[in-house]
Design brief:
Elements: H1 2-18, H2 20-27, H3 30-40, H4 49-61, E1 65-70, H5 78-97, E2 102-106, H6 117-131, E3 136-138, H7 146-157, E4 163-168, H8 174-182, E5 188-191, H9 207-222, E6 227-230, H10 234-247, E7 254-259, H11 264-272, E8 277-283, H12 287-297, H13 301-310
Parallel strand pairs: 1-2, 1-8, 2-3, 3-4, 4-5, 5-6, 6-7, 7-8
Helix pairs in contact: 1-12, 3-12, 3-13, 5-6, 6-7, 9-10
Bound molecules: flavin-adenine dinucleotide.
Length: 311
Amino acid sequence: MEHHLLSVGSEALRKAAMNDDAKNYILNNPTLFRVLKKAADRYIGGENLVETISKVLIQNENDFKCSIEYMGENTDTVQEASEATQEFIRIAKEIKNKKLDATISLDLSHVGLAISKDLCFENLSKICEEAEDIEVTISAEGIDRTDDVIHTYKKATKQFGNLSITMQAYLYRSKDDFKELLAEKGRIRIVKGAFETPKNQSIPRGKELDDIYLDYVDQLLAKNHQCSIATHHDVIQQEAKKLIDHYKPTHEMYEFESLYGIQTEQLTTLKKEGYNTKLYFVYGEEWYLYLCNRIAEYPLNLFRALSDIVN
Ligand SMILES: Cc1cc2nc3c(=O)[nH]c(=O)nc-3n(C[C@H](O)[C@H](O)[C@H](O)COP(=O)(O)OP(=O)(O)OC[C@H]3O[C@@H](n4cnc5c(N)ncnc54)[C@H](O)[C@@H]3O)c2cc1C
């Protein structure tokens, strides 16, 4: 019953986040904007790249590698896709100029996949060219986009050696996708998966999913294939540590990666223990949606948000 209530609450929050009227009301109400932004600050790099770079610099000094994403998912016009592409190019330039220990993450739909695969490929190529040897990691999106994302990755990776990809362990189809992705050189970032899927296409949270997640990590480490263990799940991190201690990969071959502001203490402990660790920063004006999603996936964050607002 309690679990059901929480999931209804989470779903309501996700819907509210997507509701344009609610979003516009908040973004146009200076008091609400200021108050909610205080809660979002814990999770975002900032509203723009400049703010984000100052946080990345601090975390680099703390010995965390960082990943930077300009947030946004569906871009509906060529103009918007081009503007997003220019922003990712700016990230690449700033990483080089400021010599940040950082990589780039992006949703292909943000740079044109929702419009056309050709446009997306063109924009992704521009970003990879500017990024040179900076790693560019493609995110995993809803299951309706998985084929197009993998297709674009495989095509682009033939030309660019700096690409890597995210795979969602919760999808049943990932078992086959994994074989295809292993055939490419790029790092594979394993996540559990964040999107709703049609019935019977994904494994719910629980032991079966945790075992599958760890099995992917095991295979990647055994094959000495670059991987990212992207999770906040303490049990998985502890089990992955055992695998790392067993296979003894070099630091470039694996990383523990967490979203900035979520279970950072765990990542800090891993770092202190000598494991390779990375913080994932997102920034942009869409922070309201991002905040709602962080609360929806872990409702206790609501109390953290209240406390951030009051303090
Ligand atoms: C670096 C990175 C990149 C990602 N990229 C993608 C992507 O491209 N596509 C995609 O679908 N998903 C992506 N995700 C999200 C991912 O799929 C999961 O939804 C998210 O990581 C939560 O799952 P979990 O593995 O942390 O474990 P869960 O089983 O969801 O949670 C396990 C435990 O982790 C802690 N935890 C989890 N979430 C929170 C939170 N919000 N606040 C506080 N504690 C929390 C809690 O202790 C919880 O009990 C990414 C995640 C990371 C870390």
